[in-house]
Amino acid sequence: MRLRNLVLNLDGATGDTLVRRIADALERAIREGRLRPGTALPGSRTLAQDLGVARNTLAAALDRLVADGWLVSEPWRGTFVAPAPPVGQAPEAGPPAAAGFDLPSRFSAVTADLEGVLDLREGRADPRLVPLEELGQAYRRALTRHGGRLLGEGEPQGNQLLREVLAGWMGERHGVPAGPEQILVTGGARMALQVACAALLKPGACVGVEEPGNRTAWEIIRRTAQAELRPLAVDAQGLVPEALEAALRAGPMRMVYTTPRRQYPTGAALPAERAERLLALAAEHRLVVFEDDSDGEIRFGGRPEAPLLARDRTGQVLFAGSLARILAPGANLGFLVAPAPLIAPMARIRRDLAARGDRVLEWAIADFIRDGGLARHLRRVVPLYAERRNLLAGLLGRELGPRLEFRVPDGGLAMWLKAAGTVDLVAWVGAARQAGVLLHPPGRFFLGPPQPCTRLGFAHLDPAGLQEAVRRLKQGFLKAAGAPPAP
Question: Where exactly are the structural domains of the chain?
Answer without folding.
Answer: 1-98, 118-126+376-480, 129-373
